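Weekly sync, protein design subgroup
Attendees: M.S., D.O., the rotation student, P.L. (late)

Item 1: inverse folding check
M.S. brought a backbone from last month's batch and wanted to see whether the design step gives back something sensible before we order anything. D.O. pointed out we never logged the input encoding, so this time it goes straight into the notes. Structure tokens as presented (741 positions):
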């Protein structure tokens, strides 16, 4: 381009003068038909000629040198024709010059135009001491089919095909224009440039444009009317672009309505943006790409498609360790950012992430995603296209970690986490926590494990729960809650250190300080057993070391210092089992039951206390059977036996249970509490109110306060009046004998 500028100087300073003299001489000859001797050259110029040689200089500095193998005059337009033209245009007073070769040139003095008529070769920056001359590969060379120079304005232009050769590349165009006074250069159409390799011998950038404009002062190249830049598998297409240079090297590209990307064998990446900024390092390797306005980054592979959008998208690149072009390292999406990944295979979940700021980190090969995280509150939507289930995660920060082929392996949420799970069948579930970690099976994308920690809580229809942490195992349909765990529904509450819900809550296991409270009909079934022991219109409380509830067989089991109570009524045992279907209750090991019993109106209620090794209660018959070392305390009596069967009457209006009858069997022993009377029998029946006890035996024995013994097959003990009735054979036959000490 500087060659074209100096070529104008040649036309203006040298050729114009000399050729103009010949032109005037020819005009005089033609008009006067007589030879006229031209005037002598001015003393200010030093001009000489050998084979048609012209040199223009100022002082001792050589500025312009022109020579030709020949010239001719006589054209009707007065122009002069030159043959075998060579021009050397020197750079000031230095030894460096630009050289122009052309076989034919025509100079029109009146029009101030010099036109080359054959292929023109221009070599820029030739050094006078350089033996290689035009063959030096470091020099820039220009070849044009023709060129037109305006000697007055300093402008030059071509209308035909032009080629440019320079160190590290080449270019071509149809038509060009250069204005030396403004340092303005233009390739008019069909522009192609090969340049800007990231390393010597490396792949160059292939540039196509409908038009190219270069301004020397701004050190920039404007590409217009449809632009394409391609280096290897990487490309940019745009309506227009500005290429920024620094010492001839590519530093940045600014493009409008740009589409770029990488075309690989396994994955195709596309980037669309209204305004693109690409920045290059000292080695002309891509370092950063910025998309301003609604920008989109998409990737398509055999397994999935990924679409990432934002009002500003920034792509950061790092050098390729293998020596290739730079590799995508990470990307930032800002302003209504969204990443949407859709699998192409059935059964895999669609993944959509939204936030104001999203960061994407690439794997070392620069092709697949390694991690995604939101830098501000974000949302993740997972949708199972096959099964119809879906999950939505909302958190202050969301992070996703990917394996090979950009398959999601782990999903994390931190700060104010909320997870909404909507199964294809069943009830939706919401949960909250401080943090969340979900692990997925790499191949299928199915959830393997879900962990929520810190102030965990959940809601599912009426059921709610909370804990310090929770783990969901979808393969086993098990939710394990740890630390101050609590589960509640409309019928009651269960609290323990650890609570496990199996198969959507049909089964429940609790351990470590278990406490439960139930009111009315319970999904866990504790209060569903409408026993005479516990009424369903008041809360029933339970504590134990562990608890198990199974909705499949209707069983609830409390173990380890188990205790059930309602008001003052209570059952304690090592193990308590409730069968909701059969409406039974079984207690084993150190059984103790306390039953409040009301007496006559106006009297304080009494507590019936029964201890045994085992208890079985049948709600259908309202019957409780105690076995093994049975001890009962009822009003003023203490009864010991091998077994005790108690039948409860329906609850009264006040909800209190009443003992309808009780029968003790096997080594029965009765004694008064606070008194001295006692009795022994094979069996004993106690009537309501506890005032009358009927003893059976062969014989039954009773002892009064004096230690006298009464025997009979049937003895009726009246505790209210201290009387005793004897029945057996002869009703009047009875004996008294002092009891042996």
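Designed sequence read out in the meeting:
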């Amino acid at each position: 381009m500087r060659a074209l500028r100096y070529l104008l100087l040649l036309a203006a300073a040298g050729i114009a003068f000399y050729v103009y003299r010949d032109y005037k001489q020819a005009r005089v000859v033609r008009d006067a038909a007589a030879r006229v001797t031209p005037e002598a050259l001015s003393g200010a110029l030093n001009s000489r000629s050998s084979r048609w040689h012209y040199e223009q200089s100022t002082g001792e500095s050589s500025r312009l040198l022109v020579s030709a193998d020949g010239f001719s005059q006589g054209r009707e337009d007065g122009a002069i024709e030159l043959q075998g033209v060579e021009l050397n245009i020197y750079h000031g007073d230095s030894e460096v010059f630009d050289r122009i070769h052309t076989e034919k040139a025509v100079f029109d003095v009146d029009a101030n135009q010099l036109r080359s008529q054959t292929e023109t070769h221009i070599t820029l920056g030739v050094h006078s001491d350089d033996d290689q001359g035009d063959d030096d590969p470091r020099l820039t060379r220009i070849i044009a089919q023709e060129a037109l120079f305006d000697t007055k304005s300093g402008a030059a232009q071509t209308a035909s095909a032009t080629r440019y050769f320079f160190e590290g590349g080449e270019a071509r165009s149809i038509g060009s224009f250069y204005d030396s006074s403004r340092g303005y250069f233009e390739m008019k159409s069909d522009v192609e440039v090969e340049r800007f390799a990231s390393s010597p011998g490396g792949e160059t950038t292939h540039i196509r444009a409908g038009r190219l404009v270069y301004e020397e002062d701004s050190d920039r190249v404007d590409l217009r009317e449809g632009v394409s830049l391609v280096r290897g598998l990487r490309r940019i297409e745009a309506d227009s672009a500005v290429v920024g240079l620094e010492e001839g090297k590519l530093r940045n590209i600014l493009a409008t309505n740009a589409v770029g990307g990488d075309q690989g064998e396994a994955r195709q990446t596309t980037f669309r943006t209204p305004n693109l900024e690409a920045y290059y390092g000292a080695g002309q390797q891509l370092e950063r790409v910025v998309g301003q306005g609604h920008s989109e980054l998409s990737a398509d592979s055999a397994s999935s498609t990924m679409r990432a959008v934002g009002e500003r998208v920034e792509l950061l690149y790092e050098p390729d360790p293998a020596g290739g072009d730079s590799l995508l390292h990470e990307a930032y999406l800002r302003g209504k950012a969204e990443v949407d990944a859709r699998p192409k295979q059935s059964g895999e979940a669609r993944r959509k992430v939204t936030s104001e700021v999203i960061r994407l980190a690439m794997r070392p090969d620069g092709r697949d995603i390694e991690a995604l995280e939101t830098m501000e509150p974000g949302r993740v939507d997972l949708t199972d296209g096959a099964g119809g289930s879906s999950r939505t995660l909302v958190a202050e920060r969301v992070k996703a970690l990917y394996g090979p082929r950009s398959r999601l392996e782990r999903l994390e949420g931190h700060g104010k986490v909320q997870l909404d799970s909507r199964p294809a069948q069943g009830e939706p579930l919401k949960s909250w926590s401080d943090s969340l970690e979900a692990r997925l099976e790499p191949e299928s994308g199915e959830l393997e494990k879900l962990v929520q920690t810190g102030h965990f809580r959940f809601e599912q229809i009426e059921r709610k729960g909370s804990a310090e942490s929770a783990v969901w195992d979808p393969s086993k349909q098990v939710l394990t809650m740890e630390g101050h765990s609590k589960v509640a529904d409309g019928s009651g509450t269960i609290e323990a250190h650890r609570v496990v819900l199996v198969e959507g809550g049909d089964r429940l296991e609790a351990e470590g300080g278990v406490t439960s409270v139930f009111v009315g009909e319970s999904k866990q079934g504790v209060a569903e057993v409408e026993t005479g022991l516990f009424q369903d219109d008041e809360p029933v409380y339970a504590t134990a070391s562990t608890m198990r509830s199974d909705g499949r067989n209707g069983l609830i089991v409390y173990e380890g210092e188990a205790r059930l109570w309602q008001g003052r009524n209570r059952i304690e045992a090592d193990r308590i089992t409730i069968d909701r279907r059969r409406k039974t209750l079984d207690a084993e090991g150190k059984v103790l039951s306390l039953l409040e019993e009301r007496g006559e109106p106006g009297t304080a209620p009494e507590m019936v206390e029964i201890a045994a090794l085992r208890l079985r209660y049948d709600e259908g018959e309202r019957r409780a059977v105690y076995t093994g070392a049975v001890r009962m305390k009822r009003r003023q009596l203490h009864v010991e036996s091998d077994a005790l069967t108690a039948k409860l009457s329906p609850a009264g209006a006040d909800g209190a249970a009443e003992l309808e009858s009780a029968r003790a069997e096997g080594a029965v022993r009765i004694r008064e509490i606070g008194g001295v009377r006692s009795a022994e029998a094979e069996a004993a029946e106690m009537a309501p109110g506890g005032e009358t006890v009927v003893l059976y035996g062969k014989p039954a024995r009773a002892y009064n306060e004096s230690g006298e013994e009464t025997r009979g097959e049937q003895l009726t003990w009246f505790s209210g009046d201290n009387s005793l009735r004897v029945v057996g054979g002869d009703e009047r036959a009875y004996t008294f004998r002092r009891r042996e000490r």
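Discussion: Residues 383 and 390 are 4 Å apart (CA to CA). Helices lie at 2-32.
Action: P.L. to compare against the previous round before Friday.
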